[in-house]
Amino acid sequence: MLVSLDISIVNVAFGSFVAEWPESRRTLTWIFSAYNIAYAAGLLTAGRLADAFGRKRAFLTGLMIFMFGSIFCAVSPTAIFMVIARVIQAVGGATLTPASLALVLPEFPVERRSAAIGIWGAVGGVSAASGPTIGGFLVDNFGWHSVFLINVPFCILAFAIGLKLLHESRDETAPRTVDYLGATLVVLGVGLLTLMIVQSDEWGWVSNRPLSILIVALVLLAMFVGRCNKTAHPVLDLRLFRLPFVTAAAISGFVFTMGFFSMIFVNTQWLQTVWGYSPSLSGLAGSPGPLAAAVVAAPAGKLANRIGHGKVVGAGALIMSIGIAWMNHRIQIEAHYWDFYFPTMVFIGIGVGLCISTISSSATAFLPQPRFAMGSALNNTSRQVGAALGVALVSSMLVAAAKTDDPTRGFHHAWTLMSALVLVSGVAMLTLFRRPTAEQLAAASQRATPTGHVTPVPPMPQ
Fold first, then answer.
1. How far apart are the first and last CA of the chain?
2. Per-residue exposure over 145-179, b if at least 16 CB sit within 10 Å of its own CB, e if not
3. Which pTM value belongs to this model?
4. Whose C-alpha in 97, 102, 130, 184 is 20 to 30 A from the C-alpha of 22?
5. Nearest-angstrom CA–CA distance, 265 and 88
């Protein structure tokens, strides 16, 4: 909840940051960029660390790093200090996120994991979508410091409960070390790729700087793939991509989050700039969608077990795509919330609920036990890069349209793109997802004991 919330909750506080440090407006944009870059860059390495040294240890350590990062953000005396504190926050978030799902998976048999992941995914998705609502309320009533301080009591509570109740587990076949060269390559590669994406709106998509960074990022990632092929215990086991459900979920999740996070961003901008809603009111206006998604997400996991993950995601993507297209076609410059925006958000929220957690469960529910955190990290990395790319694309559309006679044109172009992206996500799951084999299910069924020991797991298919 906390990590997903902090991806979007800070957006509504930007005006307060500018008022606090008016001379540092350009630096303040890095409050968002630095978090997204560091979070995306750290996920894969964090997943390998969790598998090697213990998922409970990684989760609790990440929780404390995230808490202290939040405190540093709240007491920031300068904009630069705030950016550094946000990086600390992101490192904590990247450390605890893959470990959190890896701690859930061993506690459930394979046939119940999709429902459990449905709850886990719903919490993250609803938190990200609720960020503008919660952030607007906190900023309007308690100031921007509260956006960060709200994390502290939740971190303490989660740490206390987790210390007592969580069971430690790890990959017993792996050495207690990490391929540091591979980790360096992936952190730099993913970090530079995300940097290029999030700064493209400011730098321009085809100027020398982003193209140069893209080339360097791709070279580093190619070197990382080569390293993973050569080392015995890589940061990312490339054999995961031989599992059809992993590949399908990575592609579908990447495209889905491009559309999903773009929708949150564009809808919030429309409510505030076109309909004139305040930050807190715009957040509240968007809340029916996340609430509908939360209601649908857990049952969607059970439904996926019965009829297949591909069919559930396909249906959800179709619902969501139709809802966005309808909004694009019917929305008016004059505010008409209850008779149009509210029911449209509920309809889209149903589609989100069917998709967001089902994609996560399709990626991780059938993983072999030693790869729980690694598989979760891979899924989250693809989604985080997709989210950054989607928001950067629609932001460029809005900026370009703002310079024309019809600024709303950018919103309509963005909604058209979102509708298409979500539909592609559903098609990808329908065509690429395959149920795991009996061997893969047997590997996924191995359970860790409270001491972290697991019985030998059959190898993944060659």
1. 37
2. bbbbbbbbebbeebbeebeeebebbbbbebeeebb
3. 0.82
4. 130
5. 24
